[in-house]
Each structure stands twice: as C-alpha cells, then as structure tokens.
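Q: I'm writing a short explainer about HIRAN domain-containing protein for a general audience and would like to include a description of its predicted shape. Could you first generate the structure from this sequence?
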Amino acid sequence: MLNPGDAISLLPEPANRLDSSAVAVFSFRGFQIGYLSAERCGWIGAKIQQGQDVRAIFQAPTNDGAIIRVHLDGGTPTLPPPPPESVLSVDALYAQQADLASGFWPDYLPPDD
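A: Of course. Here's the predicted structure. Afterward I'll give you a sentence or two in plain language.
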C-alpha cells in the first residue's frame, strides 16, 4: 500500500522484449507496481538514460493504475492541494462530520440519483 507522497523509482528496461523503451515503476520498498504508459515511457526513459535526475512520488490509485508526479530536473515533486470539499465523495464528507471524541456519527444521507 502506498501513501500520497511516497517516493517512486523509475527504471528503464531496455532489454524488455515487448517494449525496449519500457520504464518500470517501483515503490520505495522495492516492489514493482507497474509501468509508465506507452505514451510517456519513451520520453521519460530517454531523460533517465541521458543522466537527468528524474524523481517521482505516488499521488493516488486509479481504477487501472496510479497517478504519479514526476520532476525532471532533480527537484522534489510535490502533491497538488487537496480537492475542494465539493469534489469530495459522500463517504469522505460523512467522515468529516463525525465527532470522534464524542463518538457521534451523523445519519448517513445517500446521494440523490
């Protein structure tokens, strides 16, 4: 499990038999979590192979992968600010209304369809 802001390693795989420009994505614990998309791997992989200090962090999971933030000049990537409350899910809003100290949880109000 990765948390937002966790470091990510990007390692080119020139010997990859399916795509010589493939770039593997590893968690800070050393587990491979996937590959960069075909649209980005050639460009970012070339930057890494040219010796540029490319750094990346995990931002969020998606249904078919993850969002990572990449900095191409050795700087530390940063996370964007959290989304405004209006974008938060109903469950997140529900959890924000809970008063954990008193044990109070408001009644769940499902979203209208």
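A: For your explainer, you could say: The chain is about 20% helix and 25% strand.
Q: Perfect, that's easy to follow.
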